[in-house]
Amino acid sequence: MIILHSVLALGLVGCNEQQSASMQGQGQVDLAAVNDEAMPTGPVATMWIKGMACPFCATNLEGQLEKIEGIKKIIIDLGTGKVVMVLDPTMPATKEAMAKAVDNSGFTLDRIEMP
Ligand SMILES: [Cu+2]
């Protein structure tokens, strides 16, 4: 599964071997450390992703999500596969667009919760 994911999502960039070494810090966000000031306000969508193994995975997914209009902030927690997105209140991104971004990044969408 991990090899398949690497080929699909990362092309030449392999991530499975160095997974444990690169898991620390980078790409992982402590939600408690994100203070209110840095956090844009708006409806929050949360989705759970299967298949992310290292910071490259998170960066790849983030890149796809950034292409969607209506998402103001993306917080990815590699450990749990949880992705929290603050949406633009005037024009929030749709579930369909998020699901497509996950698809494009080569990961598997578990579920999306949004208001
Ligand atoms: Cu990876």
In short:
This protein is α+β, with helices and mostly antiparallel strands and 115 residues long. Helices cover 31% and strands 23% of the residues.
How would you characterize the overall build of this protein?
This protein has 115 residues and is of the alpha+beta class. The chain has a single domain (2-113), classed as Alpha-Beta Plaits (2-Layer Sandwich), CATH 3.30.70. It contains 4 helices and 4 strands, in the order H-H-E-H-E-E-H-E. The protein has helices at 2-10, 19-22, 55-66, 95-105, and strands at residues 44-50, 71-77, 82-87, 108-113. Strands 2-3-1-4 form a 4-stranded antiparallel beta sheet, covered by helices on one side. A hairpin with a 4-residue loop joins strand 2 and strand 3 (82-87). The longest helix is centred in the middle third of the chain and has 12 residues, at 55-66. Residues 5-14 and 17-26 have low confidence and may be disordered. The structure holds copper (II) ion (CU).
